[in-house]
Amino acid sequence: MSWSNRRLSRRAFARRAAGTAAILPVLALAGCGFQPLYGAGANNETVAANLAAVEVEPLRDRTGQQMHNFLRDRLNPKGQPTAPSYTLQVQLTETLSELGVRRDETATRANLKMHAEFFLRPVGGQSALLTGRSSSTTSYDILSNPFATTVSEADARERALREVADDIRTRLALYFSR
């Protein structure tokens, strides 16, 4: 066998090995019972119906209103349920810490941490079906213009609330998929 033929057969072997290596993780996932959360089927419709039957309890202040609206949009895209089966109570805590201090001791960067503790209960029930905590940390620049800093802080707050709302929705969907 000539040198060029050996090189060709090595390339063909390497291609086959790479193809086999790419297929093995997929087969391993199928063997362990992995199911996609948003896959097609009856379970997906049940999860969507259960999420749509969740009523989000109102939260206080402007941040709470934003969180309430983000959760409502994610859980009930067609509007508040007329006959809810579940209620979701969320308690928000916000922490602001300044970082990146200049020589004149003024901060140039800040972290905004949003923590949420949530409880899913059946309507009229006292015991929680699901409890959990979710948090998000976003940061923003503290600028020399106070208005620009206020806008940056509001944007960071909104991003944190969106991330927490997405996480809560995912956890509820996992709960309902079981």
Structure description:
The protein is an alpha+beta fold and 178 residues long. 49% of the residues lie in helices and 26% in strands. Strands 1-2-3-4 form a four-stranded mixed β-sheet. Helix 2 (42-52) crosses helix 4 (146-177) and helix 3 crosses helix 4. The termini are far apart. The relative contact order is 0.13.
Any key phrases for this structure?
178 residues, alpha+beta, single chain, 4-stranded mixed sheet
Name the helix and strand elements from N-terminus to C-terminus, one letter apiece.
Answer: HHEHEEEH
N-to-C CA distance: 59 Å
Mean pLDDT: 83
CA-based gyration radius: 25 Å
Helix count from the secondary structure assignment: 4
Instruction: Give the structural class.
Output: alpha+beta
Largest sheet: 4 strands, mixed
**Helical content, roughly?**
40-55%
Low-confidence stretches: none
Please report the total strand number as a whole number: 4
General form: flat
Name the strands of the widest sheet in spatial order: 1-2-3-4
Strand content: 25-35%
